[in-house]
């Protein structure tokens, strides 16, 4: 057979991009399955997004992920949307189908795949903390998977109401909002409890949800979206009280598995991806040390931090 020096291309468009470990996870899967594919992590400014997507088309990329701040803006550069991306109005994964670029949202699908390994959400009662991008994606997928009810618990009532209205108007699930202004007791009837806030993410690993941990019980499945560290305070407290638990690494790995399947058609080994991330998230890894050294000290430093990276 003639040698082929033309690799298939995939990648990611985001800003900032330097601290996103997805490239390590996906290239590990490509190598493991001997796929001659590449995943290129690109820092793309909002004003260059149109040119970046046109570039991907021009170079016949099989697809790409997009992260903040492009999840909504990318839609106008695509040829169509999958069902959940269309309901959410946000895309984090684009796949070439024929000559069309179709936007999907694998955030919630990754969560659902990970959840289904433990419990089927159909007919279940869900309590979900948070109303940001991750919560919206998870809420929509849980609703499409026929969860009976979804209680959204969020500090900002306007953001919370937006997600609740979306679920009530566009899906069959029954959603309600609890404004999070004091320590929250989880109702005994809750079957699935999800942290979809950013509380507990490295390096602020000691931050904890304003939640009465004593109200967690053995009948509940408790899931956290925080991938790093995988064993968050919530996961540890839930385990102590006999709950089944799901860490955020499962969601991250499964959305990678789903994205690679869209692009290559291959079901890659999730364990290879999980191992790669666990190695990176080791507190002593150079990636973790770099994040710690560069962490913003106060809210006002965040823009400066982003600009520097
Ligand atoms: P957003 O910024 O869109 O939303 C953040 C949410 O967290 C908001 O609802 C916010 O509440 C809430 N929040 C923040 N701080 C607190 C606090 N101290 N107490 C209570 N609520 C708080 O972020 P995303 O939704 O995009 O991401 C959320 C998390 O999900 C991130 O940590 C991210 O790493 C993780 N994630 C994990 C993925 C995975 O694959 N495992 C995939 C995608 C995201 P309010 O509206 O009141 O401010």
Task: Please render the helix and strand layout as text.
Elements: E1 8-14, H1 22-32, E2 37-43, H2 49-58, E3 63-66, E4 80-81, H3 83-88, E5 93-97, E6 100-104, H4 106-116, E7 125-129, H5 133-144, E8 149-154, H6 157-170, E9 174-179, E10 184-185, E11 192-195, E12 211-212, E13 221-224, H7 233-240, E14 244-246, H8 248-264, H9 270-281, H10 286-294, H11 302-308
Parallel strand pairs: 1-2, 1-3, 4-6, 7-8, 7-11, 8-9, 10-12, 11-13, 13-14
Antiparallel strand pairs: 3-5, 5-6
Helix pairs in contact: 1-9, 4-5, 4-8, 8-9
The chain binds NADPH dihydro-nicotinamide-adenine-dinucleotide phosphate.
Summarize the structure.
By secondary structure, the chain is α/β, with parallel strands linked by helices. Helices cover 38% and strands 20% of the residues.
Features:
11 helices, 6-stranded mixed sheet, 38% helix, disordered C terminus, alpha/beta, Rossmann fold, binds NADPH dihydro-nicotinamide-adenine-dinucleotide phosphate, 309 residues, 6-stranded parallel sheet
